Amino acid sequence: MNHFLDIHKTAPSDLRHMIEHAREMKTAREGRPRGALDDDQPLKGRMVALIFEKPSTRTRVSFDVGTRQLGGETMVLSGSDMQLGHGETIADTARVLSRYVDLIMIRTFDESVLTEMAEFADVPVINGLTDRTHPCQIMADVMTYEEHRGPITGKKVVWCGDGNNVCASVMHGAAQFGYDVVFTGPEQLDPEAEWQGLVRKSGQSFSIERDADKAVEGADLVIADTWVSMHDAQSARERRHNMLRPYQVNEDLMARAKPDALFMHCLPAHREEEVTSAVMDGPQSVIFDEAENRLHAQKAIMRWCLDV
Ligand code: CP
Ligand code: NVA
Question: Whose CA is nearest to atom 7 of ligand 2?
Answer without folding.
Answer: 229
